[in-house]
Amino acid sequence: MKKITNKVLSVVAAGTLLLGAAPSLASAHTSKVQSIPQGTGSAVLQNANYFGDLDPNTKMTVDIIMKLHNKKALQHYINETVTPGAHKYRKYLNTHQFKAKYGAHPNEVKAVTHYLRKFGISSKVYDNNLVITATGTVDQFNKAFSVDIKKAKFNGKRFHATKKQPKAPQEVADHILAILGLSDYSDFKSLAVKRPVSIKQKGHSPKGPLSLEPKDLIKHYNVQPLYDKGAKGQGQTIGIVTLADFNPEDAYSFWKKEGIKVKPNRIKVTDVDGGSDWNGYDETTLDVEQSGALAPMSNINVYVGPNTDPGFVDAYAKAINDNKAKQISVSWGLSETAIIDSVKQKVESPEYAEVFNQLYMQAAAQGISMFAAAGDAAAYDATRTPGTFQLSVDNPADSPYVTAAGGTTLPWHTTTNTGVKVSVDKERAWGWDYLYKYFDSLGYNNPEGWAKKYFSGGGGGFSTFFATPDYQKGVPGVNSYTAVKQWEPSSDYTSVNRVTPKIVKGTGKGRNMPDVSMNADPYSGYKVYVSDPGKPGSNSKWAVYGGTSFVSPQLNGLTALINSAYHTQVGFWNPQIYQFAKEKDSPFKPLNTTGLTNDNLFYTGTKGTVYNQATGLGVPDVASLADHFAHQWAKPGPMHR
């Protein structure tokens, strides 16, 4: 395991004499004890099959997440950094300033680390004073938090967990938001998608499916004017947070084969908590290839963490606390179960989502633009995890401090060998109902086929974890929707029936997703260059992928391009872009057509609105968006006098 040294304070255990002699919580402390939330949802912990004790000497890594201080003041500060004329406009904090203003107080951190030390548990404190990574044995954590960590199984996945809620003395527990890692149940999914069905065409049909290159994105979304200004991402660092290893050589080969001249030796890989395996390596590969292609002279810092709750959190904490990359993206996620009260198999808890949200708030205060893929199961994100059919959205893109990247389909046409005409006449919300007739003709129109083929599209809808942020309030289309109802879930959401499509209208509440969209459909997808895991150059090949996992790194690269074009740091996108979208010269084109030609399997457009839950504010004119950021920067205000 590689040791994290940059911007991390090590707190060493007091000594081996304490190991094995550490008193239990009940006998060691007379002060009131208090429960601490775990990140894993109660349904997983309560419904899992527990079948044996873990070896008490098994080593574990656990993240203890401290609570922010002055959260309302932090929200105000973030808003000022993106409000022209405000005293703090684009006056971003560094990591140490953030820690001093909003991180946990040193005495609160000390209380936790000293408490852990009593049980022989060592800890590392990240520079923001929000994340404490603790390392110890099963026996030590059992005693420290009065739990009983056992082997468990849920939904076919083996892991370790404790049914008991962790507890600690009140003076310790009061300042802890959540503990991650006492259970290592985690199932983050790469949001990259291959074409599940090969479309066999009838005769010569050259217009699709599409296999696109960076130059196609540059043309379609009007990026070229930035290159004409001499912008290439110079002076910028792109951050990629990921949960799988990759071959950096594949990215260099991709850029070379695409004729893109890039900065040499630009990729830096940081293995966080020992790094990860190769499961999902194509996701990391495409993240680096796509973002780096759009900002060819930028540096790229890749933070690879293990696919666990602490691994994901620590990868983010490392990237944000390093504060080198002023734009960071992620293309991994889990479903946020939309109707928590009526769904038994919830995987996450509100505290879990808030763990990431705190880090995103730190990033916003530091002027880092954050992007996350909105999901690839359309309006039904929970069909991926945990496998239910309610309307739902994706975490961590649900955070109000992240720009959620949604998906569209570009125009293409063909006639299949089964005689079905596929026709996408203009850019639309990505939802595979336009392929349903073809899927039907292949015999997939049954419950098994539905789950595997029919529920794909750009993620969107309403968060149940986060309220509607101020920047979305008052925007036409927010918290109201037009939808196409074509699926009827059972009362417990474990099955679904296909119904005759009909238009419905309604209202929603919570953070609306996504924020902005670009092409993500695998059938109008992008080329990726990959070789065998850990064997660069072996069996090298081109593949075509889609998914909102493309849009997230693409927005990342485009931000580096914008920052280099105007020698600025645009920071947190969302309050700015929602204001831009309400202006007459909006840099976004809303996709507002109503019906089956523009839906994400449920949500569709509404004529005259600025926003819809299928594609957010719509698709960007990147050059115009860059101009809006630049002109906003040029507006007079206190800091420009």
Describe this structure in words.
- With 641 residues, this protein is an alpha+beta fold.
- 27% of the residues lie in helices and 24% in strands.
- The protein is built from 18 helices and 34 strands.
- Strands 14, 15, 16, 17, 19, 21, 24 and 29 form an 8-stranded mixed β-sheet that branches. A 5-stranded antiparallel β-sheet has the order 1-5-6-4-10, with helices on both faces. A 4-stranded mixed β-sheet has the order 12-31-30-13.
- Strand 22 and strand 23 (421-424) form a beta hairpin.
- Helix 12 packs parallel to helix 13 (350-365).
- It is globular.
- The N and C termini lie far apart (51 Å).
- Mean pLDDT is 88; it is low at 1-29, 41-45, 338-348 and 636-641.
- Pfam families: Pro-kuma_activ.
- Residues 1-28 form the signal peptide.
- InterPro entries: Peptidase_S8/S53_dom_sf, S53_propep, Sedolisin_dom, Tripeptidyl-peptidase_I.
- Its cofactor is Ca(2+).
- Residues 211-632 form the Peptidase S53 domain.
